[in-house]
Design a protein that fits this description.
Layout: H1 2-29, E1 32-33, E2 38-43, E3 48-50, E4 54-55, E5 63-65, E6 71-74, E7 77-78, E8 86-89, E9 97-100, E10 109-114, E11 121-135, E12 142-146, E13 151-154, E14 156-160, E15 164-171, E16 174-180, E17 183-186, E18 195-202, E19 209-224, E20 229-233, E21 238-247, E22 251-256, E23 259-260, E24 267-273, E25 279-286, E26 295-303, E27 306-317, E28 344-348, E29 353-357, E30 365-369, E31 374-379
Parallel strand pairs: 2-11, 12-19, 20-27
Antiparallel strand pairs: 1-4, 3-9, 5-6, 5-10, 6-7, 8-9, 10-11, 11-14, 13-17, 15-16, 15-18, 18-19, 19-21, 21-25, 22-23, 22-26, 24-25, 26-27, 28-29, 30-31
Signal peptide: 1-24
Region (Disordered): 327-362
Biased composition (Low complexity): 327-349
Length: 387
């Protein structure tokens, strides 16, 4: 009887020892995750490595899930449709890191590393920084704005952290700060406001972003006449000048009275454009001036925003002629008893006629109508004594 109880107790002890050993072995091989939460940062377009360390994995498999619980991988097998961006690396036994390439801002969120049927979970938060960029869907490269109107433009930027937007004006390759904010407002815009402007966006992530626009001011023509009155002699030529500043460039018409002047043997019109492309100089050349050219000339400039005109008065002058009276000498003797007749020259104002009475040798020479500058008569009188 004693032997029976001894054998029974011995069996119980052996079983207890064996069970304890089994329990300890089972506890030793159970997978263990490093469950300490981790934050990982990356930049859009770069890559991110999400760590997961598992001890005693055995025959179990590690699973990764992304934001919103989407399954990414099981073991090393990628289950998401974006297989080219996700990969599980197991460089040595404990590590089961998830690599993400070409990171997107939408990748931001919580990722979990776990083992099926084991309650332990490794949580990794991925924060994706985004460099600034200009939302230029509504931005143009150039604007034409009518002088005197209000102008505003908005430059929106995206990125994380939220970018700061600044407006600058480019003056001789230098940047002049204007304001901070997305919207640039220029009230009652003037010609001096024309030029190149830059919208610059920046945050803590490089590179910065910028968009340049060109503002051109449009305005109606403004005519400037250098010489408002000019005098010239008959038969000569003269040049009338007219300066026009406008944008867009104006169409220029020269006129005299109700007659529009064109290039011809009488008139020559030449137009020059200044290097800045905003100002024109037009010249009207009048050839062989006549008395009928005396009067007022108009320079009319017109573009899509209006018109302006200037005038120049041309005064035609009659030249002053000085004609020496020719003398006649003779060796013929003149009878002393014959007196030298006297003569008189009369001019009729009715028909610009000249009458010479009692003509003598002293009346010989050329007679000129100074009003029309044309010779109306040539009178050669040679009275020789005793002929």
């Amino acid at each position: 009887m004693i032997l029976y109880w001894t054998t029974f107790l011995t069996s119980i002890i052996v079983l207890t020892v064996l069970c304890g050993f089994c329990w300890s072995q089972d506890s030793a091989v159970k997978p263990q995750l490093d469950t300490e939460p981790v934050n990982v940062t990356s930049v859009e377009g770069g890559e991110a490595i999400l760590p997961c360390s598992v001890a005693n994995l055995g025959s179990n498999q590690v699973s990764w899930r992304g934001p919103r619980g989407i399954i990414i991988s099981m073991g090393k097998k990628i289950l998401t449709s974006e297989k080219n961006r996700f990969q599980v690396f197991n460089p040595y036994q404990p590590e089961w890191n998830l690599h993400i390439s070409k990171v997107r801002s939408s990748d931001t969120g919580y990722y979990t590393c776990s083992i099926p049927n084991i309650p332990q979970v490794k949580s990794v938060f991925l924060l994706v920084f985004v460099p600034p960029s200009i939302v230029d869907s509504e931005l143009q490269d150039s604007y034409e704005v009518l002088e005197g109107t209000d102008f505003s433009i908005t430059c929106q930027a995206r990125g994380f952290p939220k970018p700061t937007v600044k407006w600058l004006k480019i003056i001789k390759s230098e940047l002049q700060p204007l304001l901070e904010g997305e919207t640039l407002v220029i009230p009652s815009i003037t010609k001096s406001d024309s030029g190149n402007y830059m919208c610059a966006a920046s945050n803590e992530i490089k590179p910065n972003a910028a968009h340049t626009i060109k503002i051109t001011i449009t305005y109606p023509p403004k005519v400037t006449i250098r010489t408002k009155q000019i005098s010239q002699s008959l038969g000569k030529e003269t040049i009338l000048s007219c300066m026009v500043e406008s944008y867009p460039l104006a169409t220029i018409i020269w006129s005299f009275g109700d007659k529009e002047l064109q290039n011809s043997w009488k008139y020559n019109i030449i137009t020059y454009t200044e290097p800045n492309g905003l100002r024109l100089e037009t010249q009207l050349k009048i050839l062989a001036i006549e008395m009928s050219d005396d009067g007022t000339y108009q320079c009319l400039a017109t573009n899509s925003h209006g018109s302006d005109e200037g005038t120049t008065v041309l005064q035609v002058q009659m030249p002053t002629w000085t004609t020496p009276i020719p003398t006649i000498s003779t060796t013929t003797e003149t009878p002393p008893t014959s007196p030298v007749p006297t003569s008189q020259t009369q001019r009729s104002t009715r028909n610009n006629e000249i009458f010479v009475t009692d003509a003598s040798s002293g009346n010989g020479g050329e007679y000129v109508n100074a009003h029309s500058q044309y010779i109306i008569a040539v009178l050669l009188i040679a009275l020789l004594a005793n002929l």
